[in-house]
Design brief:
It is built from 3 helices and 4 strands, in the order E-H-E-H-E-E-H. It has 102 residues and is of the alpha+beta class. The chain has one domain: Aminopeptidase, CATH 3.40.630. It is globular. The two termini are 14 Å apart.
């Protein structure tokens, strides 16, 4: 990761009745633009069971840089598996490739 300040998206929710209309992608794009305007990098994390979110992030060019076990438990009572992603702009600037740190 770059030495520049890093912003993080900690939660992104779209109500069920609004899903499938591109609003999550619009929210991510707005966040990317704002962070880029501030000269910062952008990252987010997602639990391994967030299949739809993972598919969205990867389809928009976000790059997974590391996967770790969290210190909290998932619904199965196991330490959750969490994937960390960088934004397409951050990946481009830093040369991050998918899975580079996995």
């Amino acid at each position: 990761m770059p030495a520049a300040p890093v912003a993080s998206i900690t939660r992104l929710f779209v109500t069920p009745r609004r899903r499938g209309r591109g609003q999550a992608a619009q929210l991510l794009e707005a966040a990317c633009e704002e962070v880029a305007n501030r000269g910062m990098s952008l990252m987010l994390d997602v639990s391994d069971d967030g299949y739809a979110a993972i598919a969205l992030y990867e389809s928009l060019g976000w790059r997974r840089v590391v996967t770790i076990r969290a210190d909290w438990l998932n619904a199965a009572g196991e330490r959750a598996l969490v994937h960390y992603y960088v934004s397409p702009e951050t990946a481009r600037k830093t040369g991050c490739a998918a899975g580079l740190y996995e």
